[in-house]
Amino acid sequence: MKGFVLNTGNETLSGGLGNGITGVHISNKEGIYRLIFGGMDGDGVFYTWYRVDRERGDSFTRCYDEIVDVSPAKTAPDNRNTAEDDKRALESYHKLKQELIDEGLISGHE
Q1: Of 8, 55, 74, 98, which has the fewest Cβ atoms less than 10 A away?
Q2: Is the pTM value of this prediction over 0.85?
Q3: Own/partner pairs, 36-39, CB within 8 angstroms, 24+ separation
């Protein structure tokens, strides 16, 4: 099957799903650089082979290729946000809301 090979410098992982989607996602939210290698099967179950907050300057390589051996998923099927994710999301919400209030685009009264 087709899938990704991810080399983080410390480890090499391969992942793919015969019936689903697989991808490598990079995000930078509120200064947190996160690398996630995962997928979702045809039944809507999420699989994660790698999920780590990285530092500026960290590097990795990824290759889309024919996968023979799939690395064991580190998390599946629990795809819930962590308490820290929820805390960051709430802080971001309050920050953005305050910016809208300061710009006069919404009122501060609820």
Answers
A1: 55
A2: no
A3: 37/4, 37/6, 37/13, 37/62, 38/73, 39/15
